[in-house]
Amino acid sequence: MSERSDLQGRHIVLGLTGGIACYKSAEFVRLLTKAGATVQVVMTEAAEAFITPVTMQALSGRSVVTSQWDAREPNNMAHINLGREADAVIVAPASADFIAKLAQGRADELLSLLCLARPRERCPLLVAPAMNREMWSHPATQRNVATLSADGARILGPGCGDQACGEVGDGRMLEPAELLEDLIAFFQPKLLAGRRLLITAGPTFEPIDPVRGITNHSSGKMGFALARAAAEAGADVTLVAGPVHLPTPRGVKRVNVMTASQMYDAVVPNAAAHEVFIATAAVADWRPASLSEHKIKKEGKKVAPTFELTENPDILAAVAALPKPPYCVGFAAESENLLEHARAKLIRKRIPLIIGNLGPATFGRDDNALLVVDAQAHHALPADGQPTDKLTLARALIQELAQRLQAVQA
Ligand code: CTP
Description:
Layout: E1 11-16, H1 22-34, E2 38-43, H2 53-60, H3 78-85, E3 88-94, H4 96-104, H5 110-117, E4 125-129, H6 133-137, H7 139-150, E5 154-155, E6 159-162, E7 168-172, H8 176-187, E8 196-201, E9 206-209, E10 212-214, H9 221-232, E11 236-241, E12 253-256, H10 260-271, E13 276-279, E14 286-288, E15 309-311, H11 315-320, E16 327-334, H12 338-348, E17 353-358, H13 359-362, E18 367-368, E19 370-373, E20 378-381, E21 388-389, H14 390-409
Parallel strand pairs: 1-2, 1-3, 3-4, 4-5, 8-11, 8-13, 11-12, 13-16, 16-17
Antiparallel strand pairs: 6-7, 9-10, 14-15, 17-19, 18-21, 19-20
Helix pairs in contact: 1-2, 1-8, 3-5, 4-7, 9-14
The structure holds cytidine-5'-triphosphate.
């Protein structure tokens, strides 16, 4: 994905407490600033045992604050000033001890002091725990984390895996890229809060024999961007993905499939439990009528083999034909006469909304230009028709979808 500035204009206070994961915070600062944020680093004394303020200053471009007695503040009230300027305070890594301190509302050094003193209604607190698995699973820590959540803090992670101590389990801090994705999502409007969305993405692969098959150029990027944008908007998202090498957006449930039939089985029986179904997948229309058990050999053949094809089930049409279908959104990848073909598909598949795009111009690319078509009207997205990156488009589509859902239910 091209470089984005999703945090442009945001001012973030990043608090570091004592933990080996401080090394990840250095990378996190870089990602935050690359995403457009300004970052003020605040470190506890324990954090300074793991990484120096010099490193954090160089990466953030600002002097690091470590003490509430910092005489550089004209009014000597760093704990008040820092929270008033910030759009969010994020503590990463947050040690077990620091979480305990926050849960109790203690304030014996600058970072906990500013967390307590910040204006809670406009400066949220996000906490990324980082500790050994036994410390994380300890009832005292779990109790403290629950208290912190109940007090309005957002807990990010922790992740699971290898730990610095050599053990394996829950408690490691999320990776910097994951923290960034969670923070960006945190700032997105929750237009689909509590809604259940089902999305298909990518190509399907229809095997001919154990080593060959029929597929297409769909990269899955648009569907994955939509899944991310929907999750950012607060939806509960299940993404049924054909064979693509894309990371799963944070918070999205992913079901991997290969063939159109597998995609059908993963989607149709579950579709009614969702409020929205978005079919971005480029499903192969046909598959070989029979699958060769062994590789079809060239050796000894005078003429090239021919294959009989059989039609795949239409997943979108099947979902739209359910007795109580979710709100169905189709995609039409065309090479010409976009509006005409898109509208014909809308009618044929009996769906309320279809998104047209020019397949050859978008497959595999990071940007796209869409045509939003319903039974009465159509409009370009973006409005000027100029290709825009797929995540920006996906967020705009999610916004439009949220409005349409409201209108349907009004
Ligand atoms: N679709 C589907 N199942 C299929 C074929 C298509 O769910 N077996 C969905 C796609 O995910 C997309 C929409 O239907 O949302 C349009 O797909 P497309 O292949 O462009 O439409 P077809 O009906 O196959 O029309 P044609 O191939 O003639 O363009």
